[in-house]
Amino acid sequence: METEYHKLGLKVGLELHIQLETTNKRKLFCNCSTTMKEKNPIKTIVRYLHPVASEMGEIDKAAQYEFLRGRKFIYQIFKNETCEVELDEEPPHEVNLEALTTALQIALMLNCDIPDEIHVMRKIVIDGSNTTGFQRTMIVGMNGWFEFKGRKILITQVTLEEDAAAIVSEENGNVTYRLNRFGIPLVEIDTDILEGFSPEEIQEIAYTIGLIAKSTGKVKRGIGSIRQDINVSIEGGNRVEIKGVQELNMLSKVIDLEIKRQLSLIKEGKSVEKETRAAKEDGTTEFMRPLPGAERMYPETDCPPIVIDKKWLEEIKNNLPESWDKKIERFKKHLKLSDLLAREIIRSDYLSLFEKITMEKNVEPSVVASFFTSTLKDLNRRGEVNLENLDENIFFEIFDFLEKGRLMKEALPEVIKYLSKNPMASLESALEDLKLNVISLEELRKIIYDVAKIEKDKRRIINIVMSKVRGRADPKVVIEEINKLELNTI
């Protein structure tokens, strides 16, 4: 298939947008919370946006297109998660230094050149995804690269910017957005044109970039925390930008379907327009607006240049996070994870949490890794848990109980389902309500003895006892106790 894609002249450029979660959980240009936990807005405001000329004195055609649609934008405001900065009623505060440091770490891990000064720019965006009519963005790295299958993947730039507002609804020209996402620190990583790769390999390249960013331990979890935009073209077609691929494992499908769409137009004798299209859940796309050009950037006069002190940069270089491939080897060697489980937890949204738990709790690492990569993932896929109701404190408490023998690993699925549906409940009350409190050895022996008075086959005794104590006793201990029995004396 690779030869086939090469014959088609497939060219793809990746733009990965990765939300950061700093220790203080603050936005890029203000102190508002980035947790996005608040559900009900305290008020709304209404805005109309219009384009302005760029630094070159020209109007971007994508911005002009959005303006001519004449839409009204309604913004939801949330207590503690929105302030005057997001409302464009107050100048931006000083940049979140931890977010900048993390962005510089990512740029250095991608072998980028770091500028001597970082300048905040305004990128004109008037689709309503912000209240200002522009997005604040700054280049933190250029001319980077990393290796993939023996080839250098070139990184054109790494930028730190404020995330856009999240759309809620659109009806009759009225578009509603939530402002609690607007301003969250976001790192954008852009590749050079990728040629000679299949869509599956391009998806793997995107995975690798994501792993490098996750090595910092400062990447947000959950759907939408990493979003992909892709630029696709084939011979005889044109560059088409596809925005908002939410699931990384959909990337290759989106590319394949765009190839088919462009091929179909070419065969029909139609031209492939340069345009921006939106990715849909099934991998197909729909027209959004004309392709933006270079006419949408101009300086942010409210933010002074940030001088990159050489000593500070050297300190960042000397304290770069452990690379993902070295982390895999450490997990296999010291935590005794299988190669497959080590790679699965590396790709998991819960990587940082896994490391914290295994460092602080004396629990079997493979149990923790399997819980996050298999148990929790399967329950979420089946709709049996709401991940938004499960925070780090819950997971820490669960594995604390496991460490102290107050919870059996077999009970984890039922316990996590209960806590997800009852977010105000304590772990103690969950175990009580589910009747999953760990039983004592004396209680276990009594259950075994009562069963053994009626049943004399050890296999059947094991099955009956396990059905009675599942999730409340260690299966190994159950079997050991049953094997000690002298059935002829009972």
List the helices and strands and how they pair.
Layout: H1 2-8, E1 11-19, E2 43-47, H2 61-68, E3 72-77, H3 97-109, E4 117-118, E5 120-124, E6 134-148, E7 151-162, E8 166-171, E9 174-178, E10 185-191, E11 194-195, H4 199-214, E12 226-233, E13 240-245, H5 251-267, E14 275-279, E15 285-290, E16 297-299, E17 306-307, H6 310-318, H7 324-334, H8 339-347, H9 351-360, H10 365-381, H11 392-403, H12 412-421, H13 427-434, H14 441-452, H15 458-469, H16 475-483
Parallel strand pairs: 3-9, 13-14
Antiparallel strand pairs: 1-10, 1-11, 1-12, 2-3, 4-17, 5-6, 5-16, 6-7, 7-10, 8-9, 12-13, 14-15
Helix pairs in contact: 4-5, 7-8, 8-10, 10-12, 12-13, 14-15, 15-16
Largest beta sheet, briefly?
Answer: 11 strands, mixed
The backbone outline, from C-alpha atoms, is elongated
Q: Which structural class is indicated by helix and strand composition?
A: alpha+beta
How many domain regions? 3
- Helical content stands at 25-40%
Rounded to an integer in angstroms, the radius of gyration calculated over CA atoms is 27 Å
Enumerate the spans where pLDDT stays under 50 for 5 or more consecutive residues: none
| Record field, number of beta strands | 17
Mean pLDDT, as a whole number?
A: 92
- Give the termini separation: 69 Å
